[in-house]
User: Fold these one by one.
Assistant:
Number 1:
Amino acid sequence: MTTTKSLNQIIRRYKDSLIDGDQKNALASINLALANGSDVKTVYKKIFTSAQREIGQMWHDGEISISHENRAAGITLEIMSRLRANFEIEDPSAPLAIVTIPKNDNHTIGARMFADFLMMEGWRVDYLTNHNINKYQIPNDDFIKYVNEIKPKLFAISVATDMAFVECNKLTDFFKSNFPHIKVIWGGPGVSRSLNTDKDIDFNQTDENFSDSVRIKSKPDFICCSNSAFESKECKSFLNRSMNHSDADSIDDTLVKIGINIKTLRISKGISQQELANMASIDRAFISTIENGKRNLSISVLHKVANSLDSNIGEFFKD
Ligand code: B12
C-alpha cells in the first residue's frame, strides 16, 4: 500500500518529469504508484490533478513557458490514454455519456479525467472537444441529429474559467430545450467559482437557488463542486440513477420521446411548425407543446400529425 509519504514523493517525481519533458520517467513513476498499491482513481486524483494544477500555476505565474506547460499536459494526456486501455468499455449496450468543455475553454484535462472516471464506472463515453458543439450557431441541427443517433443518458460539461461558465449556461439551455429527458451534470473549478459554492447539488432532490447575480436559465440536474470531485456519495448516487434511468419509465418521458421524434421527422423533411400545423389542421402553439413533450396527445391528433409527415404513429414511439 502506498503511504502518504511515498505518494508525495511519487507526485514530486512525476511533476519534475513533466517539467523536464521526460515521459519515460513520468510513466515509471505512475507504474511505481500502481505497483505500490495505489488504484487508478488515486493516480488520477492525487498525482495527475495536483501535478497539472501546480504546473499550470507555474505558467500562470510566469515561471515556465507555455510550450513547457503544453508539453507537460501532453505527457499526462498520453499516460491517461495508456491507462484507459485497461478500462475502456466494449459493450455496446452500456450507457453512453457525452463529455465536453464549452466554447473557448482550453482546460481539457479535468474533462478528460471525468470522462475516464465514467468509463471506470461502466459508462461508454463520447468525448467531444469544444469545437464540435459550438462551431456553428446554436441551435445546431447536426448536433441534434447526432444526439438522436447515439442516445446518451448523460451530458457532462467541464468548466474552468468564468467565461466558459457563461457558455456552459448557453449550452445547457440549448441541450435542455432539445433533450429535456437527458441528465446534465456540471463540474470543474469554473462552476464552483461562479456559483461560489464548494457543495455538490442534486437539483432533482432540492430547490437550491442561486442569487440573481448568477443567472442560470436552464438548471443542470447535478453540479459537482465538492473537494472529493466525482467521488462524493451524492455524485456517485446521481450517476447511478442516471445510468439506470429508462426513457420509457413514465408518461412524461414517453411524451418527450414522441415530441423529439416528431420534431426530428419534421426538420428532416424541411417543414416548419406553421406548415405542419396547417397540414394537420392544428394550432401552431399546439405543435410546439407537442414537440416539447408537454402535451398529453389523443390518438386522433397523432394520426393527423403522422399523415401530414407522411409517416405512421409507430415511428413516434421509437427509441
Ligand atoms: C493548467 C491550467 C491551464 C492550462 C490548461 C492545460 C490543459 N490542457 O488543460 C493552460 C496553460 C492552457 C491554461 C490557460 C489559461 N488559463 Co488556466 N489554469 C490552469 C490551472 C492551473 C489548472 C487546471 C487543471 O488542469 N487542473 C487539473 C484538473 C485535473 O483539475 P480540475 O480542472 O479542477 O478538475 C478536477 C475537478 O474539478 C473535477 N472536474 C473537472 N471537470 C469536471 C466535470 C464534471 C462533470 C465533474 C463531475 C467533475 C469535473 O475533476 C477533476 C479531478 O478532481 C487552473 C487553476 C486551478 N488550480 O484550477 C488555471 C485557471 C483555470 N486558468 C485560468 C485562466 C485565466 C487561463 C487563461 C485565460 C489565461 C490567459 N491569460 O490566457 C488561459 C485560458 C485559455 C482558454 N481559452 O481556455 C484561471 C481562470 C480564472 C477565471 N476567473 O476565469 C485559473 C483558475 C487560474 C487562476 N487562478 O487565475 N490554464
Number 2:
Amino acid sequence: MIQVRVRPGVEKKIRGFFPWVYRPEIAGFSKEPKKGDFVVVRDYSGKFLGYGYVNPEANISIRIVSFKKEEPISKELIVKRIEEALNYRKRLNLDSNAYRLVHSEGDLLPGLIVDIYDRYAVVEFTTYGMNKMREWVIEALIELLKPAGIWEKTNPYISSVEGFDVGGGLLYGEVPEEVLIWEHDLRFLVNIPQGQKTGFFLDQRRARKIIREFVKPGDECLDFFCHSGGFALNMKRKGASKVIAVDISPSALQMGRRCEKLNGLDGIEWVEENAFDFLRALHKQGKSFDVVVIDPPSFAKNRAAVPNALRGYKELCLRGIHLTKPGGYLAVFSCSFHIGREELLQVISSAAYDARRELRVVAESYQDLDHPWILQIPNTLYLKGIYLEVL
Ligand SMILES: C[S@@+](CC[C@H](N)C(=O)[O-])C[C@H]1O[C@@H](n2cnc3c(N)ncnc32)[C@H](O)[C@@H]1O
C-alpha cells in the first residue's frame, strides 16, 4: 500500500482523530498515488497514524477511514462500520420508519450517505474514494438490511469537486415512485427518484416535533421553505386555525397537499412563491402570526459564499421578527455547513436590533440523533435551530 508522510506538526490533529489531510499538509508519497488509492498515513518520522483513501486533486486530499493499525480498509471493515451504524440507529427512539443509516464522517465512513425509507435504501457517494468502494457498500446493505430496493442519488456539485462521474438511479431491486413513511403521528409521502436530497429532510425530525410545543390551538402560523409541509402539518395537528406554507417548488407543495389529506387534515394554504418575496409582501400588508418557522436551504456551499448567505439570513430574520406577534414564537434554522451557531446568533441579534424587538431564546435544536457529528470538525453540527420568543 502507498505510504504517505504528513508535514511535521500535522500528526497532532490526526492523533486527535481529525479525519482529513489537506493537500498542503502532505510531505510526500512513497509512490505517485492515483485517485481513490488506499494509503497508510504516517507522521514525518514514519510512525503510523491511520489508513485512508486519497484524491490528489481535491483540497481534502486524504480522508482517514481507520485510526487503528490492525484495521486496514477492507470490505470487512466497511461491513462492520455499516453494521455499527445500524446498531446505533436501533438504539435510538426515532419514532419513524425513515432514518439516516450512515452519515459520512459521523459514522467513520467518509463520503457515504445512506438513508432508509421504510424498506428502501437511498445511497449517495460524495467522494471519489468511497465511490470506488461502492460494490462493498451495496453488498453490505443487501446483506444487512435485505431492502426491497436501493436507489442512488447524485450531487453534480460534489462530484465535480471530487472529479468523478456519477451514475445514479436504481441499483438493486425496485424502488417505487412514492414511499409512505411515518414520523411520530404523521405520515408523509416521499418521492425518492425525483425528490430533493434523498427525498425528505430527515435531519429536521426533532425540530418538527419541538415546534408543537410552541403552537396552541387556534394559533395562526407560517411555515417558510415548507417543502412537503413538515412543520405546517405539525402545526395543524396541534390545532392551529390558520397555516400558510410557502415553497418555491411546485412538486414539493403538491406533495404537501397530498400529505395533508393523507393525515386527515385540511385548511393549510399552500403558496408557491419565492419566500423572500412573500415575506416582504406579508410584512408590507402588516400581517402578523403566532408562530413563524423559517427553514431555508443551505445558502453557503463554500466559504466564499458566506457573506452573501449571512445577508440572506439577516433579511429572513428581520422579516420573520416583524411578522411575529408580540409574545409569539419565531424558529430560525440554518443548514449551512460554513455558518456556525455563533454566526447565526449574531445575525439574529443584529436583526432584532434593526427591528427594535427584544427576543428571548426559548429552545435550540440540531440535526436529529441519526446524523452524528464529529467533535474535531465542529461545523459537522451543520443544522442549527434557534427558537425565539419575540417580545
Ligand atoms: C431545508 S428545506 C425545508 C425542509 C422542510 N422544512 C421540512 O421539514 O421538510 C428547504 C426548502 O426550501 C425550498 N426553497 C429553496 N429556495 C426557496 C425560495 N427562494 N423560496 C421558497 N422556497 C425555497 C426548497 O424547495 C426546499 O423545499
